[in-house]
Amino acid sequence: MPKLASELSQQVNQRLNQVGPSGIRAVDQKFSKVPGIIKLTLGEPDMNVPEHVKQAAIKSITENDSHYSPQKGTPYLRQGIHHYLKTSQNLDYDPETEIIATVGATEAVCATLLTILNPGDKVVIPTPAFPLYFPLVTIAGAETIQVDTSADGFVLTPEHLEQVLAEAGDSVKAVLLNYPGNPTGVEYPQSTLEGLAKVIADHHLYVIADEIYSELTFGVDHFSIAKVIPERTILINGLSKSHAMTGYRMGYIAGPTEFIANATKMHAFMVTSPSNPAQAAAAEALNNGLDDPIVMREAYQKRRDFVQAAFAKMGLDMATPSGAFYAFVKIPAAYGQDDVRFAEDLAEKGKVGGVPGSAFGAGGEGYIRFSYAASDAVLAEAMKRMAAFVDSIKA
Fold first, then answer.
1. Which residues does the UniProt record annotate as the domain Aminotransferase class I/classII large (predicted)?
2. Is the alpha carbon torsion for 72, 76, 79, 81 positive or negative?
3. Which domains are seen in the chain, by residue range?
4. What average pLDDT does this structure show over 157-177?
């Protein structure tokens, strides 16, 4: 086994040294070593990919669809993205010049940030937020302005954004919104998005709208900020959550032509193009499977109601999610704000794994996130164990 030459040990990208590994993955790996634990740590759908979508991937392989696709994705896939956005959200993006198919929404976020950011730029990120965002901004040479939204129901209000921008000065380049949100599941109302859009336009900013959970909403219709300020919106979405296709790694970016031209260069340098079988599956899902998420949505809503009632019975407050599949729960008062210690005790003693809220930024401190993308039986046992653990704290 080769050992790196000693004089090369520090010869790495210094920005990479400024960030740690994914907090979610680190917790998941740590708790995986606990015997008998039920892990509700990862946002991994327990559903199967729809059969017609799987068959499209198989057909791509058997027909030797094995050569490079266009860098922005196959025409059929980009047409499918156009079809989905037009049909489901009444957004109109040109498949030729305004859409890029990416290797998951993760690559979409990374390519977007690397396209628009320069050293010294700042990005406003409401917290709690998906932890991926923070290191990617750092690696791009920019800075994050984390805005704690816990006092406002985990929603960034226009007034709060205006205040933050007044204090930050002219170095802010973009606002990054994720809704329904990970880790809270909270959706942004249309009126709030319209107010945010005005502030964003007044300050001449981009808005990066990560809408990966847009198909998983409960009792509310998803409203994209791209309907209000399309000329400033970089829209990110994908198939991982809506069609349980996490392993297929298919996402996309939609935005103004001028931005897409530059983002295409960054995307091409990073990955060349996505995998052909995955693109064929995604195209089938978007062109012919717009009703596929309905069954998943109904199952997740039922699970949300179940865990919310269970946490209420334990005396624990939970943000009411109107989308996604996460329960963001206030930890017991006995632990104060120490969500890391609570998560570790719950894993070791209660045999239930969740992610400490502080992993999602300052706005998540004192909370713990559980994914309810698990079977009813698994969730029932997890809530039983957690109730016993919470009772033991009170004793």
1. 37-385
2. negative
3. 15-48+293-394 (3.90.1150.10), 51-288 (3.40.640.10)
4. 96
